[in-house]
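Table S2 (continued). Query chain:
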Amino acid sequence: MALNKSLDEIKLIATLLHDVSVTHEEVFNYTACRKTQKWVYKRAASEGIGFLTKTLSRLGKAFDKALSEESPLKASKLRFPSQPNSELPRFLGEFFNRVLDPSGVVLHQPCVQSIAVIRDLCYLFYKYEVPYSEVQEQQVIDAFEKTEDDLNSVTTQIDELRRVVLQTDTRSRVCTFERVDVARRARRSLSDLFAYFDPRDILPRHGPGAVATKQKLWNKFQWTNVSSRITDMYPFDAYFCASAGHVCDSYNGFKTITDTDLPARVLLVPKDSRGPRLISCEPVDFQWIQQGLGRAITDLVERSPITKWNINFTYQQPNQFGSLLGSLTGKYATLDLKEASDRVSVALVRLLFPAHIYEYLDACRSTSTVLPSGKEIKLKKFAPMGSSLCFPIMALTVWAILDAAAPDTDTREGILVYGDDVIVPTAFAGDAIEHLESFGLKVNRDKSCTKGHFRESCGVDAFRGINVTPLRIRTVWSSTPSAESYTSWIAYANSFYDRRYYATYEYIVGELVRTYGQIPGDDMSLTCPSLRVTPLEQRPFKTRFNQRLQIRQWLVRDLKAPVVTHVSDGWSMLLRYFTEAGRGRSTKPTDRRLPSTFVEEHPFSVSSYTQRGTSMLVRRWR
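Corresponding output:
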């Protein structure tokens, strides 16, 4: 049943149950722990890994709904045996009884520590990246196509709304006065934001990921196709060449560049136990401009007094703090948008954004994409996940609608947007959902928290002001040494230690040492993956004194990203230098009023490339 020959997922959760019995002995004694462990082994033997990844997570979601006062917990509906004369499950019943009454409703004074324990156990393997089936792949693709079909009717309605807003058609059966008024105020807000923004003042760049045209990293700077839609707005010589000399020297080669619109390409990438995630890879010429324009818009939004307090791209902390505050006071609700990137339609962006901005946005978006089956579909959505414009345009669209629909200044100041995670004043939550969905967006009500004292936003789950975010294991254990498994499981072990789950920590450390040998501890203060505590006999045994640095060093395992050296033609390397040199690693200050600084970790080389996801384990002196 386990996915590997070493670490056993069932034994891991059984060990975690033992830790719970130690830390909560007054609630969950040794006898109760043994009974629960036996039940878990029996259930897992019949259901396999799905018991950990799906069955327990369903119980966790139902528990969260009860905490949110959306619906009482009913164990029998979840295929969990219930307690006598109660709707609560026998599994972890000692903790459920301290949070919910027998009808499944939250107690007046629930135990927050018990909430944390239940969620730690139910969500431990919720995001485990187990292999997914072809059926799950097809379900994701079908959902993508269905969303596209849904946008057809949405586009018709928004186009009609646009005619009314622009007063070219004053009669409409689907456009209420309130909806028209919200659209006009949203347009005004975005017009004010972009009043002095020049969409041509950008620095194009390539992203680190794959592109639809499948060029390698070093081939991205050698143009073979540049859409005429782009060059109409961003002239080829000004945005795709290093200088006028580049144009002159490469003129004959540039004459062979085609100017057709190439489609994007859909990829399925691992996500978690629920299935893969769909990413749309952009053609290289579109990505080049998208990266520059998207970064310019992001900088504008985070700098402008109109939006910098409400929309965040770099920092999640405002939303995380809002989640904690909302759970404590109940004054703020958290909303989660479903398929957010796929439901921002082209028609909606055309309606809300200023015309002089929209024409540039439209020029660098893909109009079609190719599915894994080879089927090409036209896109009604503005930008699927994978486009560099997806995140900033989605956030601005959501904020503009909510800001326009807000009844007063206090409500507007309480709106926070980070991608598809939204925080609004609770009194405004119902209207916010209604207005967002009236423009074709869709709110995920299962993950939105508008009642009770439970909130979740940007990775922080909170109840009555206390963080109850569970530890979620993603990376599947590998019985053979790998960089991802090594770093991930060291981090998991440290998280268990921080939560006082010491037996679980020791179990994972034992498997790590068995596979990788000695691992350094945090007290050694080394700049490499380290454990919180390691026994002396398990520490790296090879040591030396570095005379030049005057420090003691140990030979330890560390990560190294292999560098690919590829010498391209001079103009391509110069173009790369102009767009990437000096960018380095951005170090954002805590105080936003201070400028960002940039630090180069290594000297920049126009012939050196680091590929994503290629880190490997090496031994080096630290």
